[in-house]
Predict the structure.
Amino acid sequence: MIIHYLKISLRNLLKYKTHSLISAICLAVGIVCYTLVCFFIQEINKQEDLPNSERRVRIEVNQRQSSFFRAKEIQRLVEQSIMGLECLTIQSYNNSTEIEVIDNDQRNLPFLIKYRGVNGNFFSYNARNLLYGNQLPDAPDEVVLSQKFARKAYGTANPIGTIIHLSDPKYIAENSIQDFKVVNVVEEEDLQSSKADCYFFYEIIPNDEALSVGGYLSPKTDIETLNKTLQSIRWQRDEDTVHPVAKFTQRHDSTFEIVKLLVLFIASLILISGLINFLKFIIQMFYNRQREVALRKCMGSEIKGLFLLLFAEIFWMMSVAFLLSLALTEIMISLAEIYIPNRDMPDLSISAIYAVQLQIYLALLVVCMLVIWFPIRRLRQVSIISQINNNHSRHIFRSVMMWLQLSISIFFVGSTLGINMVWHEIFGEAYSPLTSKEEKNIIALNVNSQRMWQNLNPILTDIQALPECTETLAMMHNIQQDGQFFMHTYKKADQSEAMIAFTEGSPNYFKFLNIPLQGKEISEASEGVIYVSESFKLQLDKDSVQGMVELNNQNYRIAGTYKALYKESQGGLTIGSAFFPGNRFRTFYFKFAPGTNPDRNLRRITDICRNYIPITLPLEVRSLADNKQTVMGSMYMTQVGMTILAVVSVLLVVLSIYSAISMDTVSRQKEIAIRKINGATPWIIAGIFGKAYMMIFILAFAVAYPLVRLMLLSIDDRSTRCIQSWDWGIVLFFSVALMIFLTTAYKIYRIMHINPAEIIKNE
């Protein structure tokens, strides 16, 4: 019998192939969004549910400019026994360096690693299990490896007692230690964006590095008492007298909890919108088959059988949606790995994500069972004839669901429109004098390892020897992102301070990138020379500054003015930019002749680098046109994601409205025919249908638009000037109204011009 129901339900779904597939796809998108959000929140909660979570505190410095400890200040806490504070934990923030691993076969294998400086309490405080006993790094020449890096460097061999060698010891520490003995391996966590490969003893961290300090509040001590004790520990920092301050950790941060709830709410809206369309499609098909249902009842079918028939249809579509969601999850993770910078990309457990996805699938099946029980249950309470003829209840259900869907759609469309406007205001139209073809013919090589520094000259010589390579540009920063995050301070005429973004590179910067320049391009790098952007020049003219300018208390001669690449002012953070001709280089750009194959150029540069750089060290080679794994690329992906969500929500609403108008026009044909016989004009008929949908739209807009506006205005005021006006709200209103009109126009036109005689005759 079950197989019979599965066959019948599959046959019914195949009658509406397009609607069935689209409903399944929309539900799959909702499942994916909700799954990923639930997974991340679940993993974050795991990290928060650490031992003694209610007693966990972080120790900060009461200085507004910088609340982190400097390495040289830590001893003030270590040397004193602080009453009320247990398990003092010290850790630095992730940094990177190059090392050489001397394995059991005495091979020197170079690696680029992320590292932290910690004390012995770090591992127990963060509930990190050690795999080889309890040995902790308690001496400056000892190190603990992560499980992942140990497998990468040593395979299945035991790394305890082996040596890792710093390729550039000055980069990590200001002492003479170059060799570190491996004393333990720490177990890997499921999710942690700040993972490190190596954990050194914190004392080797340079004095200017920032350190984070935490611990437990003693059971018989409150945080006020602890802070009174910490106030007695004072020292001089810069021009301020500072002291430590204890605060509860993130678990007690209400703002963070609100953010988590907001993200979960948005993901829930997507899932609910897809689920509504899914259920409404199933229930509409059920109501459209009332004669079939009535016939089954007359032939002795029980309510249980009807329930199983409807549930079989849900099972088929839900299973298809679940399989599609698995495929979409793989695609989403692949895109995230491409567009999110590696340093910010956590390790994702596919099996754990699939487990959450399966739980949501089973939960949705249960929800659907409960929802479909309502129309099945009504079959017991009313006669067959009344069930066939009564449409009032389903009209109410359909209208409420449509209102909810339309509200969600307006929310996402409005959010996407607002975010794009904010994006445009913050970053503006990216200025680049290069064409897309020219950008593809420029290859960027980032020097990211000590081994590459050592072999830089032969690498550059081999690349420049390529006949297609026409010109080389050396830069200190990546021109697509890094230069926007390096700032100098400029003091205006009114003595107020402003920030100036700067970049540094070889003097042929303007010629190489075709940047218009007013002034003379110097032939070689020179100290004390600066080029200013057009926006910075406007500020200098306003301040009556000419010829020379002071930045960070140092004078520079202005050699010219240029039009800045991309966008200088990000939300009002800077008033312009500057370019310094220098000889400090980290990124090299190679221009290839027009007509050459960009992919071939990438491969040739990669092959040249691999002649000098071992496979264990990563290479950063990409075309200028490729902004993946950059800040701009991540933001672009966010834009695309929001746009996709808006399109999906609009598609759901269009399907919902189209299905509703189709059902209305079919079920009310007899009514419309009678109205036309009694003198109703086509426009009166159109008004009957149009009024109902317009009312639903107005109610949905009245709810969704204020929520969107409040959400966008909660962003920093400097970046929301564009949405403070009501113009974009009017555009949103008429855009969605036009969408509804286009969706319903054809069906309303058909019902306006029906032949009453044909309808009455068929009845």
Observations:
- The first helix runs from residue 2 to 15.
- The first strand starts at residue 56 and ends at 61.
- DSSP finds 24 helices and 24 strands in the chain.
